Amino acid sequence: MGIVNIDEELHDQIRKASAVSCRSINAQAAFWVRIGMLCELHPTQSFNEIMARELRAAGVVPQALKIAS
After folding, report:
1. Cβ–Cβ contacts within 10 Å for residue 14, how many?
2. How far apart are CA 23 and CA 15, in angstroms?
3. d(C-alpha 19, C-alpha 27), whole Å
4. What Pfam families does this protein's entry cite (predicted)?
5. Please, are residues 25 and 36 in contact by the beta-carbon 8 Å criterion?
6. How many helices (H) and strands (E) does the chain have?
7. Mind listing the pLDDT tens digit for each residue in 10-39?
8. What pTM was estimated for this model as a whole?
9. Which of 27, 29, 31 is nearest to 11 (CA)?
10. C-alpha span between 17 and 58 (Å, rounded)
């Protein structure tokens, strides 16, 4: 594991995003780095397509939603 230097404004944005997504600051930064890398590797795919592919690769199976009445 290494240390990455980022500017204060970006760190503040990561901190805010981590609270919304229930991730640690480090986990949020790692998520953004991974997604950025995947976007560069697959420039013709949308974020949603990349996420769907990664979820399938991880074995996540979509289930029907039950709607409360």
Report:
1. 19
2. 9
3. 11
4. ParD_like
5. no
6. 3, 0
7. 999 999 999 999 999 999 999 999 999 999
8. 0.77
9. 29
10. 23
**Are the beta carbons of 42 and 52 closer than 8 angstroms?**
no
Q: What is the pLDDT of residue 58?
A: 94
Instruction: Round to whole Å and give the CA distance between 7 and 3.
Output: 13
Q: Give the containing element (helix H, strand E) for 28.
A: helix 25-41
Residue 64 DSSP symbol: P
What tokens does 33 get? 């780095």
User: Measuring CA to CA, which residue among 29, 34, 5, 33 is closest to residue 17?
Assistant: 29
Instruction: Return the pLDDT at 4.
Output: 83
